[in-house]
Description:
It comes from Methylotuvimicrobium buryatense (Methylomicrobium buryatense). The protein contains 11 helices and 15 strands.
Amino acid sequence: MARNTHHLIDAYRRFRNNTENVVLATIIETLGSTYQKAGARMLIADNGGSSGLLGGGCFERDLIEQAHTVFETENPKTLFYDMRSPDDAVWGLGLGCNGAVRVLLQLLKANNDFHPLNRIVEASESDTAGILATIYESDHPDYSNGDSYFLTESELDVLSQQGNTPESVAEAAKQTWMQHKACLKTCEIDCYAVKLFFDLIRPPAQLLVLGAGVDALPVVQFAKALGWRVTIVDHRPGYVKPERFPAVDALLHLMPEDLQERLSLDRFDALVLMTHSIEYDERYLRVIATSRIPFIGLLGPVHRRDRLLDSLGADAPKIAAKVFGPVGLDIGAETPEEIALSIMAGIHAAMKGRTGGQLGI
């Protein structure tokens, strides 16, 4: 998922408890260089409080001002911020960001469980992926600006299961899913041209850490700050104490041979092996070799990685291409916190198809 979804979920729970209406600001289109891309979201309260960041401070103040109109009229509103002019005469910010964003503001009502944000939260909590389609421009008498449709991944496979979703919208959602990219599309509904924003909603990334030593704690902390779900497994019962890892989503005492039986390994996006025991690393790695986990990180030098792979024998070629050892980016890390930063940066870069070099070179 998501970008900044984990912050929205926390804010959603707060607003839900207070039963206050909120305005959801969503970037639906970007041009040029922008702080956030399409699909980034921000919540705005009636008192001017907010959660999330869309422009790095460039236009948030104006967004909050514009949200007051949405609170008053209850009508969605689309805004266009063009910061490509070096003078930035419109906003008076002089930012020179060389980008533009289109933002949709829509009122989320407490008596409607803050739809469609509630669907995003439900998808996150149930590990469900799908497409959220939101109308931002329509003259159709029955399909209004702000109307949203959430189609799960399984529903996208069978268009007949879409319920009240117009067929053209369901078909466009399926195309968006196949293209793996948020976009704007125009759908024909009863001879009306209806414009929608289609966004991919994915569950949080899942990290499996094998080894619950002291150095695993900062890895967990960085991963949770990114909104990831983290599972820790260790073969030593004395290490598997909830008070040691209060933020972790699951903490399990398992021997390597029980790993496959107790966990659905294929659901994890990345794994870091950090038992600091060559014997247990070998045993865990032998089980992992049959999984489809796309990223396997190993601690220690290259010759340790090679020894672990050699121990797998015929199974080594199955995972060699997705084994990263030593895991992490070369940032000169020395302390546990620096090493954890290196590890998480390396995993994030690999998941995004990047190498992790300097942006300014």
